[in-house]
Amino acid sequence: MSLTSATSQQDRNANSPTDVSGWVPVVEYFFPGTTVGAADITVPQPVSQIGYETPGIIENFNHETRASGLFGDNLYWTAGVYYKDTQFAADSASIYYPDPDATGAGAGHSTNIVLTTEATAVFGEMSYEFTDNWEATVGLRQYWDTRTSSASGISFGKLRDFVDSVDNDSLIGRFVLKYAYNDNTTIYGSASQGFRSGGVQSAETEQTSGGLVPNTFDPEDLWTYELGLKGRAMGNRLKYEFATYFSDYDNIQIVEPVLVLSAVVNGGTAEIKGFEAALSYDVTDNLFFNVAYSYNDSALTTATAQHDKGEPFDGVPQNSTLGISGDYSFNWTGNVRGHLRVDYFDRDGSEANSKDGSFSILNQSYEGLRQLNARVGWLVNDWSLYLYAENLTNDDRQLRRPYRGAINYVIQKPRSVGMTVRWKL
Predict the structure, then answer these.
(1) What DSSP line would sit under 201-257, residue for residue?
(2) Which of 22, 109, 345, 367 has the largest count of CB atoms under 10 Å?
């Protein structure tokens, strides 16, 4: 039997300044006549832009203990426990431009918010070899997950004090059947269950919904079915993997309009189908290439308040992702080893759709990501020096564009050139 234990602790400060001028209609809803969108402007300098900052502290603790072993010669088992405790605390604030006090109520949004997640899981899995060719695996995992949100402060001129929590307890399973066609080829089929935890609505939504939506939303469930093939050829120099899959979502979490804001609710079904392929070829002991390609087609199978039936998932690439890389190891001189790597990545764009009439931008498309990277290194004993270049073609694709309440852009990182030096103790 073997026993493994891992613990991690992370403490990090983060600040996310954002231009949320798309929320000007929300300000107009609470303070009529104070924004540039008003039919009858009643202030000298109406609100035209809104800035938002969320300086926060993130604390994250994780621990897992796992044991594994053999019963006889044919039954392999693993079991363990997992614990996670995270907290995000922030003092967020927004400011109106050009006049911060255009509404007469000071900051549009000023609050102290604390989000916590405490999760525990126990899991176990067994794999049994029936014959030299057949193997079956069964696994179960039980989750206990509690998420809590508390906030106090001022939102759109109103005092608020909000606390709520949701429990996400779930038992999920995994089943795999493998068949070794020969020493180099394995065929497998699997069925696995998953879920995305539920949560608590934002305090602004809770305050303004008037009971139109519940304060919490439930987990999202799915089953994924996969059929695949793995193998080796050409004296093990060529390795290949092919798989096709289908995912069926139920109780899917969707965003629906609530007056001028929005809320996450459960409802509707969706599915994703696609395939993946990967090849790895060792030309020599020092030179190899990798190619990976995936295709997916996502669609909502029931209409919702925000989407029509047949529309794709918001933000999910449509339809393919391609990755190519080459790696070469050599000697510069004497005991100075060399390393060269080049990789290329190409991901399709995506789209987002909405029927929420309180926002001006309801449908948006995002460009895909294309990037060529390279690095070359010198390695001597425990020292290494690498020169690298990322985004060699200096593409500047718009990975995110204004949509709903957010008007900010996310632009692909420009060409970056640098050097790294490492020393192994």
Answers:
(1) --HHHHHHSTTSS-SEEPPEEEEEEEEEEEEEETTTTEEEEEEEEEEEEES-EEEEE
(2) 109
Q: How confident is the model at residue 87 (pLDDT cuts 50, 70, 90)?
A: very high
Q: Length of the chain, please?
A: 425
Other beta carbons less than 10 A from residue 198's beta carbon: 19
Return all residues near 399 (Cβ < 8 A) that are at least 6 apart: 366, 367, 369, 410, 411, 412
Q: Which domains does the chain have, with CATH numbers?
A: 78-423 (2.40.170.20)
Q: Which of 356, 71, 375 is nearest to 205 (CA)?
A: 356
Give the model confidence (pLDDT) of 385-409 as tens digits.
Answer: 999 999 999 999 988 877 765 566 7
Q: What is the CA radius of gyration of the chain?
A: 26
Burial of 316 (0-12, 13-18, 19+ CB in 10 A): middle
pTM of the model: 0.81
Bond from prior residue into 98 cis (ω within 30 degrees of 0): yes
Which is nearest to 201 in space by CA: 152, 162, 167?
162
Contact 225, 246 (CB under 8 A): yes
Other beta carbons within 10 angstroms of residue 405's beta carbon come to 23
Give the CB-side neighbour count of residue 424, counting CA atoms within 13 A: 6
Strand partners, 328: 287, 340
